[in-house]
Design a protein that fits this description.
By secondary structure, the protein is α/β, with parallel strands linked by helices. It has a single domain, classed as 3-Layer(aba) Sandwich (Rossmann fold), CATH 3.40.50.150. Helix content is 51%, strand content 20%. A 7-stranded mixed sheet has the order 3-2-1-4-5-7-6, sandwiched between helices. Helix 9 runs antiparallel to helix 10. The N terminus is likely disordered.
């Protein structure tokens, strides 16, 4: 696929090609280190159906796929896909340092280069928002996940969410706007990236809305668990 053909479905490409060198550090600071705990929990859910093939979609610097590979109790094919080559380069370095086998490939969520029903599980950690928040290709992104999942396969999503309690929700939005955004901008030097990330996090779906989105897209059942007072949610959708 030529770069020209990929531009329409890569509106955030420059953002996520710019920030990789400090991306992990900023995530750790923003979440007070809780992002690692959330990814570990997500990895366990990705392995709960004893899969043979797992895809980490929008893998970024590889933290979820590496956690899955490290926790696997039996032979497992783990693939990480992202459209940012700088992110993938960092992921490959981390895999080598940890002695883990993960295949990292560049690609786009709207046109996944895998056969139908290829994966038992697809996991995504804090990238589903980018695929669905005011994204004209949201429906295509979800349909591609459905296409590559086998019947009974699981789509495991950990993502920013909206707390039920109004006071907590307001505090969370204040934190994102007045701490996360300016600090991310200062550390990374990329104002646009963290303006987008903070704004989309504060305005993203609540768990019920995301559940409805997945059911309407074609998943047969969807459950969710609120984390961190509801500022994060873990969704499990079954094909």
């Amino acid at each position: 696929m030529s770069p020209d053909n990929r531009k329409p479905v890569k509106p955030l490409y420059n953002i996520f090609s710019d920030i990789p060198p400090r991306y992990d550090r900023i995530n750790f600071i923003f979440t007070w280190g809780m992002d690692r705990k959330w990814r570990r929990k997500t990895a366990r859910e990705c392995l709960a159906n004893n899969p043979q093939r797992v895809l980490d979609l929008g893998c970024g610097t590889g933290d979820l796929s590496l956690e899955i590979a490290a926790k696997a109790k039996s032979p497992l094919e783990v693939t990480g896909l992202d459209y940012s080559q700088p992110m993938l380069d960092l992921a490959a370095v981390k895999a080598k340092e940890r002695g883990l086998t993960v295949k990292y490939i560049e690609g786009i969520a709207a046109d996944l280069s895998f056969p139908d029903k290829y994966f038992d599980t697809v996991g995504i950690a804090f990238a589903f928002r980018n695929l669905t928040y005011k994204n004209p290709h949201a429906a295509k992104h979800i349909s591609e996940v459905l296409r590559i999942l086998r019947p009974g396969g699981r789509f495991v999503i950990v993502e920013s969410s909206q707390p039920e309690n109004g006071f907590i929700r307001a505090a969370d939005h204040f934190y994102v706007k007045h701490f996360a955004y300016p600090l991310g901008w200062w550390i990374s030097g990329n104002r646009g990236a963290y303006k987008y990330l903070s704004f989309s996090a504060a305005h993203y779906y609540n768990p019920g809305e995301l559940k409805d989105l997945l059911l309407k897209a074609g998943f047969s059942e969807v459950s969710f668990q609120r984390l961190f007072l509801g500022a994060v949610a873990l969704h499990i959708a079954v094909k």
